[in-house]
Amino acid sequence: MTARSARLNGYLFVVIAAGGFGAMPIFARFAYAEGVDLATMLFLRFAIAAALMTLVMLLWRLRWPRGRDLWLLIGMGALGYVGQAYCYFAALRYATAGLTTLLLYLYPAIVTILAAVLARRRLSGLRLAAVLAALFGAALAVGDSIGGSPLGIILGVGAALIYSVYILVGARVTDSAGAIPGATVVMLSAAAVYGGIALAQGMTLPHTGAGWAAVAGIAVLSTAAAIAAFLAAMKRLGAADAATLSTLEPVITIVLAAIFLGEAIGLRQLLGGAVILAAVLVLTRLPKTSA
User: Fold this and answer.
1) How far apart are CA 269 and CA 290, in angstroms?
2) What backbone phi and psi angles, to 5 degrees, belong to 142?
3) Which of 33, 149, 285, 289 suits 120 as a labelling partner, its CA being 20 to 30 A distant?
């Protein structure tokens, strides 16, 4: 595979991942409407996805990660995903959804800067401008409601920092472990932690077929496919560019919310989406980062 074709595949994987993650709030709205609580939804999300990915591992006879890679992947799921989710959902109690989402989308800038520091390389002005433009586009896209307490801001930044570390670790581990084996271990470890939390709090399962369909959508499209695709994208594009290109997620969420939930798309959302797409186009013309 040539470098150009590998990079094109990386863009495709980012779009798949962004589509899956971007659809998750839509699926979640339907799941909540059918009586599913947060702890149960998170457990079912990772448990179903882990079962599906384990089946893929067995059918394709893929090699399970071992040694240092295995422990790093377990940490990514049990600490990274759980910690990021806790900070994010806790932040929603002390800050508006708009501010919380914006703070989470600091992660492309954090990943880009940390990747440059770790690789001891100079960050180009054009790449930095694209990252900042994507962040500005996300700020426009999340809407007018930006406010919260200091605790909410701390938790929101915490979610971005944890996810940034998750991405940087994942970029290095995926090179040796592979995207599908790596994603499978991440999902299994996250499912184990969320299972304990759900059992402690008591599970509230979906009451209807529509509820189970929404949970299945979260597990299959927004977890199994999205995580595996994102890890594959990082292997081909580098952590920094994969993270920045993922700012397509709020654009996809806004479009899907308009289609399936009847939510209006305002001028700010259109401008934000245009800025993000412009940043994405700039990044596609830059060489791959080393991390």
Assistant:
1) 32
2) -75, -15
3) 285
> In this structure, what are the phi and psi dihedrals at residue 290, rounded to the nearest 5 degrees?
-85, -5
Whose structure tokens read 């990772």?
A: 46
- What's phi and psi for 62, nearest 5 deg? -80, 155
197 in Cβ contact with 39 (< 8 Å): yes
What's the count of helices (H) and strands (E) in the chain, helices before strands? 14, 0
Q: Taking the CB of residue 93, how many other CB atoms lie within 10 A of it?
A: 12
Residue 23: enclosing H or E segment and its boundaries?
helix 3-33
pLDDT per residue as tens digits for the range 170-227: 988 988 899 999 999 999 999 999 999 999 998 888 889 999 999 999 999 999 999 9
Question: For residue 117, what are its two tokens?
Answer: 């520091």
- The two tokens of residue 124 are 């180009």
Give Cβ neighbours of residue 93 (< 8 Å, ≥ 6 apart).
152
| 13, 229 Cβ separation under 8 angstroms | yes
Residues pairing with 95 in the sheet: 148
User: Dihedral of CA 226/88/116/252: which sign?
Assistant: positive
CA distance 245 to 289: 13
Backbone angles phi, psi at 95, to 5 degrees: -150, 160
Whether this model's pTM surpasses 0.90:
no
Please enumerate in sequence order all residues whose Cβ is within 8 A of that of 199, keeping only pairs 6 or more positions apart, or say none.
none
The residues, any chain, with a CB within 8 Å of residue 63's CB and separated by 6 or more, are 178, 181
